[in-house]
Structure formats: C-alpha cells, structure tokens
Amino acid sequence: MAPVRVGIVGLSANGGWAATAHVPALAAVDGYELRALAGSSAETARVAGEKYGVPLTFGDAGELARHPEVDLVVVAVKVPEHRALIEPALAAGKQVLSEWPLGVSLAETEALAEAGRGKTTAVGLQGRSAPALRYLRDLIKDGYVGRVLSTSLIASGANWGPSVRAGRDYQLHPAGGATMLTIPFAHTADTVAMVLGGFAEVSATMATVRPRVRDEVTGDSVEMTAPDQIAVTGVLTGGAVASLHLRGGTSPATNFHWEINGTEGTLVVEAADPLFWIAKLTLRGSRTGTLEKLTVPARYELPQLAGRSAEPSYNVAHAYARHLKGDLPDFAHALRVHQVLDAVQRSADSGSRVQVDAK
Amino acid sequence: MAPVRVGIVGLSANGGWAATAHVPALAAVDGYELRALAGSSAETARVAGEKYGVPLTFGDAGELARHPEVDLVVVAVKVPEHRALIEPALAAGKQVLSEWPLGVSLAETEALAEAGRGKTTAVGLQGRSAPALRYLRDLIKDGYVGRVLSTSLIASGANWGPSVRAGRDYQLHPAGGATMLTIPFAHTADTVAMVLGGFAEVSATMATVRPRVRDEVTGDSVEMTAPDQIAVTGVLTGGAVASLHLRGGTSPATNFHWEINGTEGTLVVEAADPLFWIAKLTLRGSRTGTLEKLTVPARYELPQLAGRSAEPSYNVAHAYARHLKGDLPDFAHALRVHQVLDAVQRSADSGSRVQVDAK
Predict the structure, then answer these.
(1) Helix (H, G, I), strand (E, B), or coil: what is residue A316?
(2) Residue B83 and residue B93: Cα distance in Å, rounded?
(3) Is the pLDDT of residue A44 over 80?
C-alpha cells in the first residue's frame, strides 16, 4: 500500500514539538512518508526542509494543504491558529491530525467537529495511544481489580507555575484556549475515561492561586487568569468515585500519581514528568495486598520503539501506528472531551454539581 | 501539685482502646493518677481493676462520675453511649475527656457542647497533640513553604471496607454516629485546619460503593449505608485549594499521603497506617526542589516517649500532657468540627458548594 504522504504545519529547524516528536515518530512507523512542511515563512520552511530532508516546503500552510502530494495535514502549532489551518485542509479533502487541544473554545471545537464530520480526522490525545495506558485499560476490562470502587489522582500541570516560558504567554488566559484545564486536565480526564469510563457528574473547584507570574523572557510580573488549581470530584458512569487534583507547575513531591481501587485489587500509575501522556509511566498492581511492578507486555509495543517510552516521540509514534488502523480519537471525540471540560468549568463557576451528558 | 485523679469508663481486662492507649499513656505522663474505672458490670470492673492496679472499680459509670476521688472522667466507649455518660459527669462537676466523636449527631454534639460550657472538657482529636503534626503546623507558620497554594490528601478509612469487625456493626450506619465521615474524615479535616486553617467552603462527593459488607463474626452479608467514599474539594480560609479523598478499608497503595504546596516549598506527610492521628508519621520537605526527611525536634516530644511514635498510646500521652496545660480541643471545638462535617454532608446531599461558617 502506498504510504500516507504527510505535510506538517509548524515544523521548524529551530526545534519545537513537531521536530521533537512528530519527525522521529514518523521515521519510526511504517506507512508514512514525510513529504511536506510549512513554516512561518518560505525561507524558514526551506531551511527546515533541508534539515529534515523534506522535499516540499511552504511558507503558507494553505498551499501545503492544497498540494496534491499531501494526504494528511498534521497541525502542530499553537491552538489559536488551529481553526484557520484545519478548515482549509478539510475543504481541500485532506485528512487532518491536529494536536490537542483542537479548538480554543467549546464553540470553536463544535465548528471544527462539524467541519470534520464524515472526514478522516484525529487529535493528539496521546494518552489513548500509550502502551502502558492501553494495557491498564485492558487490565481493568479483564477484571484485575474486580469492580472499580474509586480512583484518586494527584498531578502537576508542568506549566501554569511561577513563571511562563518564551512564546507561552497565550497560555496565561482562557481565551488562548491552552490552559491547565484544556491541556493537562483534558489529557487526564480523557485517559481516566478511556480506562475507567467517563464522568457521569462532576463537582469542581478551580482557582488561580498565582494571579501574577514571572515572564522568563522579560523578567516582568505578568497577569495570569488561567486556573492553576483544578480539583474535581465526581462519580464515573460505572459508579466509582473519582478525585482528581491538578496543581500548576511542577512539584518536588507528586507530579503524577494515579491509583485505582477495586473489590479485588489495586493499580497505581506514576510518572516523574507531569506530562504523563507523553512521559515514561510506571505501573504497579496488587491483587494480594502487595504492590508489584507490572511490565507492559510486548504486544502493546512497536518493536522498534521498545525501551524508548521516555522519549516524547514514543506515544506519538504509537498514535501514528493506530491512525493507520482508524483507531485514533477524532474531532467528534475531541468535542466530547471539550464537553467534559465545559461541565467542569460550569461546576466551578456555579458551585453546583453538573451532569456530563452521556454521548 | 496533687495529681489529677482519673476514672476511665470503658476500661476492660479484655483489651480495647482504653487498655491499649489510655492506660500506658497515663503511666507515661506525670500529673495523673489512674484512680477508678467502670466496666460493663461490677465483676468485669473488678477483674480489670486487679489487672491494671486500679483501686476503685464500678459496674455503673454514674457511680464513678459521682465518686469524690475522681477529678477527670475519661469516656472511652463507643459514641452512642457518650451522652448518657458525659452529662451526669458534667453535672457532678467533673472534668470530662471524651473520645472522638463527641456525639452521634450535630444536634447531640450541640447539646453536649452546651452542657460543657464553662467546664473543663476535652475530646480525643489526637492529631492536635501529635508531635509531627504540631511541628508541621509550626513549619507552615514559620514560612517553610511560603504562601500555601494547595494541599492534596489521599487516605484510607481503615474501617468501612469489605468486612466489619466484631462489635463494630454500629459503624455501618450514620445513626450510630461513627462513620468514615465522623471519624477518619473528621480527624483529617481537623488536622488540616490546625496546620493550614479550615475550609471556607466545601464541595463534596460521597457514596457507599460497597452497600453490603461481610460480618467477620457471622460471615453474613450485611447492609452498610455509611459512606465509604468521601471526596471533598474546597478553598481554605487562607485561599489555598484543598483536595481530600478518603476511601473505605485499607489500600495496598496509599493509606495516608498528604502534601502541602507553597510558593517557596513543599511538605509531605505519610503514614503506612490509615489511622494517621494515632500512627507513626513521616515528614519530608523541600525548599530546594528535592524532598528530604525531616526529623521532629526534641522540643515537641515527651522524653520518656521518644522513639515510640508507632504506639497507639503515644499521641494519647501527648494529649494528656497538653490537657494539663489547658491546651486540648474542648467540646466547643468538637462542635465546630461537627459543623464542618455537616457542611460536607449538606454539600454531598445537595450537590452544591457549601460555605463553612467562620467561628
């Protein structure tokens, strides 16, 4: 079968997420060919093309999307630019894989889900591709813990801490669409939903306990209105009680600790890096009263990536492999995740428990 | 100064909490004399008196309370019996130290607080006497973590798990006054309040995910209506966000993990035993990015008890030592804790955030 010809929007010779994760991921997975890229100008794109050996380079993402030698447009730029890039690509009949979050708001995500209806779309909720988490889901499904009674999770947000990095100032305010709610919390809630079933209802407390943070470029104190504390409790569709607490920044204590307690056993997932959806995860489990390390079976791995689970490209490569099987979360799924985020936001705003619509 | 002459209600030769904790605690602390005890009958009291060398023994607690050689009545029986024992003791002009919880309900606790007004009363919220937790409070007060941003806590309830022990069936239903909410959650919330300041508002999710449990005596499956899942989020009076999740039973994973995150540092408290208020605690802290073990300074200890923090009598002994200084939580304090529990219950019932009245 002919390889899927990929065009990446946002691949720069200066590094960044596309360079760090997508380029090595595509190199590791059969069935793809990195054919095109678009940068912020024709010149930067040309330089990147030379660096990564990509034949087609564009200073305009619309040209990339319309080019007949591109099958799949990968959108790896910041979320405020997504819609303007995705809609033309879909209109040109291309497959689109967008990094998460899909849209800056629930309304924009609705519009993108509508635009993507009936087309081949995917979003970068990499937790759904992580071998350790797919194994975890199967352990739960196969009854390792028996009936799930509860789940408790404490994690850091990585960003939204005491300072903001260069180019990340759009993350300081909800209007930028890239907050601790829409990024780490969304990955967390989506992963919990994959493994245990989603929230039936949520009660949320959110706050911005650092209303001013330091700009790492200028040194200035700047305003932050995005939440840096998200504490959600609720009942999952299966009846288990869930408690999730995310705090901005990183912690010398817990950066990712997730445990699942059931009638017959317990499972614990941990990561040193708060970005668990692209980080190395460790699994421990107990059916006897003593936790033991669990090794992810080889059938969940891509052999060429075995042992590389700490690399950012690892879960992205698994995502590409799953995309070939039509097994990635699509834009409709992205909308469902945004609806959960909206329920959390409404609960935090109103102080009331909010039902999450079953989809 | 003459020692305080103590009469314990509920001290049995067959063991139990009074024998395990109060007898060795009184033996370890200067200023007390264990002068009297009351048991379930004159004969069992006499046997216990011989065993523990207690001169005055009673089959009737009212007689103990009225005896002129008793200054302090210690009530160490199950909570449904408290009121009937405490009110006569107070009426006889005696000091009363009641084990926690004080009353079976908010209303009963109000009545007892009213009966104890102007008198010398105390309740067994041992967390307030624990050296490690008093040291923790002082670390926070002295700015170890800077401004407190958040606190996250996962713990087990010890009881309210898959089975119920002999004599504990009254704990299966809220009417018994001894549930995961009124015992472990109360100790937890009170300790958090001591260290960080209390809740300003709470949003709670509670459930009974094991509506039937096994009676360890008969083997029968019996109904449980007490909550075995309590997940509370909220904002503390100082503005920090708090997340507390208690689950029934014990866990092969986390039985007590509490962390406090601030602008300048982090503190972590852990216990292997869910009953943290009478268990051995370990403290770790970081102001540099690396957690290190913290040793409780000697000034918080009773020298004769150093190294014995894993013994159930350890914090009880510290409580007796503090009682001599008038520094134990009294019945009025017990009522304030019950008011927090009531706020949690109302939030869980209504699905609404509930303000905790500032006292």
Answers:
(1) helix
(2) 15
(3) yes
Q: Residue A162: closest CA among chain B residues belongs to which residue?
A: B263
Do B16 and B116 fall within a single domain?
yes
**Nearest chain B residue (CA) to A148:** B209
When divided into structural domains, chain A yields a total of 2
Structure tokens belonging to residue B253: 């994973």
- Which pLDDT does position B1 carry in this prediction? 81
The reported pLDDT for the residue numbered A95 is 98
For helices B186-196 and B131-141, the axis angle rounded to 10 degrees is 40
For residue A270, what are the domain limits?
127-296+329-350
From A80, A103, A124, the end of a domain falls on A124
Q: Across the beta sheet with B292-294, what order do the strands follow? A: B292-294, B282-286, B266-270, B256-262, B148-156, B241-247, B229-236, B199-207, B354-355
Residue A358 has pLDDT above 60, yes or no: no
Interhelix angle for A331-350 vs A186-196, to 10°?
110
Q: Token digits for A192?
A: 């919990």
User: What are A335-346's pLDDT values in tens digits?
Assistant: 999 999 999 999
Would B338 be classed as within a structural domain?
yes
CB-CB under 8 Å, A353 with B152: no
Q: How many residues does chain A have?
A: 359
Could you give the C-alpha distances from B27 to A116, B6, B14, B21, B315, in angstroms and in order? Answer: 76, 12, 19, 10, 13
Any B CB within 8 A of A284 CB: yes
**Is residue B286 within 8 Å of residue A253, measured between CB atoms?**
yes
Length of chain B: 359
